[in-house]
Amino acid sequence: MIHSRVPVSDLREHVGRTVSVCGWVNTLRLQRHMQFVIVRDHTGMVQVVHKRDNGPLEAQLEALTPESAVKISGRVVDAAQVKLGGLEIVPEAVEVLNPAATPLPIDEHTGLEQRMDWRFLDVRRRPATQLLFAVQTTLEQGMREYAYAQCATEMHTPKLMGTASESGAEVFEVGYFGRSAYLAQSPQFYKQMAIAAGIDKVFEIGPVFRAEPSFTSRHATEFTGVDVELAWIDGVEDVMAFEEQMLAHAIAKVADAHGEAIAEHFGVEVTVPTTPFPRIAMADAQEILRKGGWDPAGDKEDLDPEGERSISAHIKEATGHEFVFITHYPVGIRPFYHMRAADDPSVTLSFDLLWKGLEITTGAQREHRSDVLLKQAAEKGMSPEPMQDYLSAFRYGCPPHGGLGMGLGRVLMVMLGLDSIRQASFLFRGPNRLTP
Questions:
Q1: What is the b/e burial string over 175-208, where b = at least 16 CB atoms within 10 angstroms of the residue's CB?
Q2: Residue-level pLDDT at 299
Q3: CATH topology for 8-98?
Q4: What percent of the chain has pLDDT over 70?
Q5: Which residues, listed in sequence order, are joined to residue 76 by a DSSP beta bridge?
Q6: Maximum CA pair distance of the chain?
Q7: Which CATH architecture has domain 120-424?
Q8: Which pTM does this prediction carry?
């Protein structure tokens, strides 16, 4: 008789019936009189209990190895003494769908780098990591929901470019039919082209490539970016308002769907932020930090990681808020296409968003006037020749616009209290890691 597969989480509804469970052997306890097998699927774990009888089932259970893929059919019985859901399965048939080799290459004590070598096993064996990807799915769903509700259009921009996408940044060069192409380190220019194409609000969730030899806990050479661009804005404030509302909506969705599980597996409470988020100009932030003893090496226009953590702590203490927009970055540390403030041309109408001390977003109002763009590019020592396609988008009536780029992995990292962005992606890519 064929029994339909039942997820472990649904077994309570099948007490007294014979069902099939498909999953992996989590642990084996093979005692003198009894055999206990814990089977794990993507929804949970259940105990399989068999009394030794010298029969074929005993031999099959005895031959199992940890992480073998199995299908076990048997009767679901109430067992109040069992910690795993108060249920167990008395087996009637055991099918080994794929035996696992022994010994396993990783265990619960294996360090992160070696676990990354065996990521498929690492994810499979850790319910918390599986939860991370469920959270990521819900987070993206929440962001898309908000963007769709604002009548934004989802775009898919090229990841192969004929010229490097932004000034001074390091890009990956690839061979392209006898010439060079570059992997896009941002959809920036293309989403601005979409604005020039008359698409009112644009967003994209897709891969971003950065050829930075950074070995920190927050950098990756390939990551998922959440990019937004908005036309006909009155100012950069419109962009910040869009982002804070989008994040509040998405985080609320995560808290509702996974809040209890996140508290259990990560020991973190997901707090839904109130809006608006606090805002502070870069000059004011630096003044506050210097009064507190912050003294970065050299003449810093930007905030170092310590400065970001300190200003976030200050804002949290003053307002109770985990988020803060740092605004009005100096011209020297922002790209040529950021609009400059009319009342102070030394600063840009730009921002970074910090969450619990980590930068998760950079955004700005863009310069949409072609003559000003050319002037600002020249000031940065950039030649207009490689950027002709980009610059052309501004010569025929491009509206005022602005946007943002957010790192999905960093958002997950902060939300779940992870130590490293390596843990926030399925298969991490960094300067020293191109496999698996």
A1: eeeeeebbbbbbbbbbbbbbbbeeebbbbbbbeb
A2: 62
A3: OB fold (Dihydrolipoamide Acetyltransferase, E2P) (2.40.50)
A4: 97
A5: 89
A6: 88
A7: 2-Layer Sandwich (3.30)
A8: 0.93
